[in-house]
Amino acid sequence: MIISNRIVLDLHALGIEPDDTILVHSSLKSLGWVDGGANAVIDAFEECLPNGTLLMPALTFDNVTAENPRFSVLHTPCCIGVIPETFRKYPGVSRSVHPTHSVCAWGVNADTMTGRHYLDRTPVGENSPFRLLPEFNGKIIMLGCGLEPNTFMHGVEETAGTPYVFAEGQTLFNIDADGRNEDVYHITHDFKGVEQRYDRAAECIAIKSGKVLDADAYVINASELWAAATAKIMLDPWFFVDKI
Q: Where in the sequence is the domain holding 48, given as residue range(s)?
């Protein structure tokens, strides 16, 4: 498919290597018209990573709430766009068990990176695939969505203990792939009163940029971002948000 081939070439130009581990935030609309839609985009990423791992957030914070507290790893749709929702249902994709901040993964380390998320009681705890990215020399790709919706940054905020990140706890329910139902007392996030400004990552580290089809794309080294963002928050806990 011509469009998939173009996406592959664009990703290679951004420095994506066959054995990379990459987490992708995306906007399908930003790419322009894509023959094959989200499937063509996913196929292109998988083609680029024959020896690597592809991850996409499968967040459900709008779908799993105190009023609707059940999360099914097989059936609960994600709420952040058509590309990750399509990827969730792709052959060979693993999904982490987490009521609000699950991640889907395909490739060499998919099961390793998703397999222990069920142990966490916060959205981006130590077993989250987001938090594991630096251990796998991971990269974050922001595809057509700017630098703002960077869920990886929540792991930095949780670990650093920023004053705005956590809300009160609530009991939610995880239903795993075998149908087992576990009630989980879970501490959620609370960004009331602040606007997230993760675009300020560009003030902390060098970020590679380019085009994928019509979309502006950014590639971020996860280890570098973790170290630099943590240092910034230690100096100023409010650096990555604006009070509103």
A: 2-243
